[in-house]
């Protein structure tokens, strides 16, 4: 059985690497062609950044594969030899903390390189060592408290319940819902400062848009995202009474009020179409399938790894294999998400104006240095949003005339407007 698992994980790893290699080759060729949506210099720079991220991703994938092989051949047995092999729930918790600590250390160099080298080189990251350590300390404290509690509950279920995978699924799904509810008001403020949007025409216009779709929220806030990163973003967070509109301060600086309203109109489209609940439903299906498959692994697998099928090992093995199962589901979930994005764009263009949404999309591409083209395999597997050129085409703009952009408000913006 172990051989089959290793073969499946090897195929999964090779597929990921192949997709990244195809993306690198595609962008390497495209970045030297005539620019679209941005200046030639920015277009080339965006391509170079995308290639470097893919190369780092390949290296990270290889390290993950090496860690997987190490865990199933040596690692699990090594931690078990240190902690013993009792049925204790606390032993399972200690095992999982050890498992997570080793994986964190293995992945740390990539996070540091991304934050302090790559993103700084291309003008994204504003992170300082002090702020990074503060964030790390907060994250670790939260993980020890809340992660430890989750590990304990899940391990207790594994130890004491026969069909543990059913109740394990119920537990984690309930926790996922709870996190969505409390994230905007309790978790996010630990890391960022949220300020109510000042009274004025923009706030009034946003509130009117929200009333049109029946969205009742906890408020409209700006977030000090620029202290860590210069990229632009906005989101609706929370469920029920904790829903709130969050605008990054970077977005506020770069988009004009009409463009902001168009972007928020897009997000309101997701709310109006019930996309949040659709995503939760897909997550529930994926989680249930993962628990069903991984909760029924044969005991022989664990003996092949030279460990007893104890709670800590079983949960850790699930965590190792969930990405493999997720990879199978990814194209389906990505396709559904892209479909929802097109619908949200249509909604946003009606709410905030087609020209404003197009202008906002192009500013986001330009400011975020997001290379506007990708290999079809990458789009098929990973793109939760359609490629921006396809989104613009769907909004009625001819992508074939993008390479003659017009200057407007300091950026290269849209083209060949269809007034119909």
Quick take:
The protein is built from 14 helices and six strands. It is mainly alpha-helical. Strands 1-2-4-3 form a four-stranded mixed beta sheet. Strands 5-6 form a two-stranded antiparallel ribbon.
What does this structure look like?
With 420 residues, the chain is mainly alpha-helical. It has one domain (2-194, 268-297, 318-413). It has 14 helices and 6 strands. A 4-stranded mixed sheet has the order 1-2-4-3. A two-stranded antiparallel ribbon has the order 5-6. The chain starts with a helix and ends in a 7-residue tail after the last strand. The model is unreliable at 402-420 (pLDDT under 50).
Write the layout of secondary structure elements.
Layout: H1 2-30, H2 40-83, H3 89-121, H4 129-160, H5 164-191, E1 194-196, H6 201-213, E2 220-223, E3 234-237, E4 244-248, H7 249-254, H8 257-272, H9 275-294, H10 299-304, H11 311-352, H12 354-367, H13 376-382, H14 388-394, E5 406-408, E6 411-413
Q: Assign an overall shape.
A: globular
In the predicted model, the low-confidence regions spanning at least 5 consecutive residues are 402-420
Quaternary class = single chain
Task: Give me the side-by-side strand order of the main sheet.
Answer: 1-2-4-3
Count of domains:
1
H-E order: HHHHHEHEEEHHHHHHHHEE
Number of strands: 6
Distance between the termini: 61 Å
Number of helices: 14
Helix fraction?
over 70%
| Average of the residue pLDDT scores | 88
Structural class: mainly alpha
What proportion of the residues form beta strands (DSSP E)?
A: 5-15%
Radius of gyration: 23 Å
